[in-house]
Write a structure and sequence with these properties.
With 469 residues, this protein is α/β, with parallel strands linked by helices. It has a domain at 333-454: Isoleucyl-tRNA Synthetase, Domain 1 (Orthogonal Bundle), CATH 1.10.730.10. It has 18 helices and 15 strands. The strands form four sheets. The protein has a six-stranded parallel sheet, sandwiched between helices. It has a four-stranded antiparallel sheet with strand order 5-4-6-8. Helix 1 links the parallel strand 1 and strand 2. Helix 11 packs across helix 12 (313-323) and helix 14 (375-382) runs antiparallel to helix 15. 5'-O-[(L-methionyl)-sulphamoyl]adenosine binds at residues 9-12, 20-21, 23-24, 49, 228-229, 231, 254-255, 257-258, 286-287, 294.
């Protein structure tokens, strides 16, 4: 069976994982579990972006060798991803020697699409990025994120000729051959593509201390794009291996800020290599905190580990998969988080406790899962509206709670035990059916529910699934 390949953005390892990194992984993992529930075989890449001056400087500040520094941080990211209950099949680090060699091969294969030219203009040291004259003017010469003046730069760089591919990229996006979700970002990007300049893909070695050498020019090292974007195929072994079993990717998941690189530069690289474009690009929104962008200077950065420590993994997954939108920005506050936890405990935790207790009292034996097609749910999942699909499940959970209240099996048990048994069995069957899909979002809870209601004798868990504190 052909595999379906899902990718996530590879974060920079100059700091610890932060709350913003949660969305890439949770969305990718949800898609993976959904696809697997449909019988598909999924390959799932994650990784770390480990080159550049920022990382080099951070290591120096910490007084650690750069490679040791990125080794430590890459491990931290792997642990972080696991702590989210997310399972990847492949992990790529951009300082991996195979990745570095493969990037050099890719560079050579791009041949005449790469040319050398002089760059003269503005640069932000903090962002490690070139700044256009318009941005310079808009920001009065000072980076709004780093509050530092832009510096003037004059140096030789290699460029990737995006102009060679613009028409083809546009056609493939317009026709949805490479489909960008959500549609409003597709539109936004198509407007941007018009003005997209050729992009600098190297910097002088004297300026970048930590990067992959450009093949055939010892004075230059690769700058960001080929090194980082190529991870999606070097991890599959390109160009050493035939990657057609996995490539083109089914879905590449990125945050909205890096969509333009994935929708413009990445397709140009792929077309230059004669490779097909990914079938889908999903751009998710940003997580804000108390309505504001997370930033060290505002002091509102929330550590995801703190959220995990509060109530554990399931409430975290529940919050970010149900109450955060897949495609728009979403806010986190501790108050909203507590409200969401209570909802989980009241709607689902109580349902499990109550139904299992009634089953025990009436000696109901565990049931087999009755599978059911859910076209409405699938329709939402298929267009990446995961949070709306989750809402549908929650509505079914609400309906089940209402049914218990209306059918009152505890009262029936006194007058008509046979009918009470039938009612309880039917309620359990319905819960087990809903549970099949809950497993896509909150797998460990779904496992608990399945084990309670399929056991020889149904018994409530010793402690509620979501205890009130
Ligand atoms: N290294 C690049 C990606 C290269 S991919 C070939 C990068 N790293 S990052 O660490 O800045 O971001 C990693 C991912 O986290 C990106 O998808 C980015 O959009 C996402 N997010 C960073 N902050 C975020 C929020 N506040 N909210 C949601 N996602 C955010 O960019």
């Amino acid at each position: 069976m052909k595999e379906s390949y899902i990718t996530t953005a590879i974060p920079y390892v100059n700091g610890n994982p932060h709350l913003g990194h949660v969305m890439d992984y949770l969305l990718a993992d949800t898609l993976r579990r959904y696809m697997m529930s449909k019988g598909m075989k999924v390959r799932f890449q994650a990784g770390t972006d480990e080159h550049g001056n920022k990382i080099y400087k951070k290591a120096a500040e910490a007084g650690i060798d750069t490679q040791d520094f990125v080794d430590q941080n890459a491990t931290r990211f792997q642990e972080f991803i696991h702590s989210l209950g997310v399972e990847y099949t492949d992990f790529i680090r951009t300082t991996n020697p195979d990745h570095e060699r493969r990037c050099q091969e890719i560079w050579k294969k791009l041949g005449d699409h790469i040319y050398k030219d002089k760059y003269e203009g503005w640069y932000c040291e903090g962002c490690e990025s070139f700044v256009t004259d318009t941005e310079y003017a808009d920001n009065n010469g000072v980076c709004p994120d780093h509050k530092k003046p832009y510096t003037k730069l004059s140096e030789e760089n290699y460029y990737l000729r995006i102009s060679d591919f613009k028409d083809e990229i546009r056609a493939k996006i317009e026709s949805d051959e490479m489909k960008i979700t959500p549609a409003f970002r597709k539109k936004e990007f198509l407007n941007l593509l018009e003005k997209m300049p050729d992009v600098s893909i190297s910097r002088p070695k004297s300026q970048v201390a930590w990067g992959i050498p450009v093949p055939g020019d010892e004075n230059q090292v690769m700058y960001v794009w080929i090194d980082a974007l190529a991870n999606y195929i070097t991890v599959l072994g390109y160009p050493d291996n035939d990657i057609s079993a996995d490539w083109p990717a089914h879905t590449q998941i990125v945050g909205k800020d890096i969509l333009r690189f994935h929708a413009g530069i990445w397709p140009a690289i792929l077309l230059g290599l004669g490779l097909p474009l990914p079938k889908n690009l999903l751009a998710h929104g940003f997580i804000t905190v108390n309505g504001e962008k997370m930033s060290k200077s505002i002091g509102n950065v929330v550590d995801p580990i703190e959220i995990l420590d509060k109530h554990g993994l399931v409430p975290l997954r529940y919050y970010f998969l149900r109450h955060a939108s897949t495609t728009d920005d979403s806010d986190f506050t501790w108050d909203k988080y507590e409200a969401s936890y209570n909802e989980l405990a009241n709607d689902l935790g109580n349902l499990v406790q109550r139904l299992a207790t009634l089953c025990k009292k009436n000696e109901i034996a565990g049931r087999k899962v009755a599978r059911r097609d859910e076209p409405e749910f699938d329709a939402k999942m298929d267009v990446y509206e995961f949070n709306f699909a989750f809402d549908l499940l929650w509505k079914q959970i609400g309906d089940l709670n209402k049914r218990i209240d209306a059918e009152k099996p505890w009262a029936l048990a006194k007058t008509n035990p046979e009918q009470a048994k039938e009612v309880l069995e039917s309620l359990v069957d319905e819960l087990l059916t809903i549970n099949e899909r809950l497993a896509i979002f909150i797998p460990s809870t779904a496992e608990q529910i399945a084990s309670i209601f399929t056991a020889d004798a149904i018994q409530p868990p010793a402690t509620p699934l979501f205890p009130k504190n």
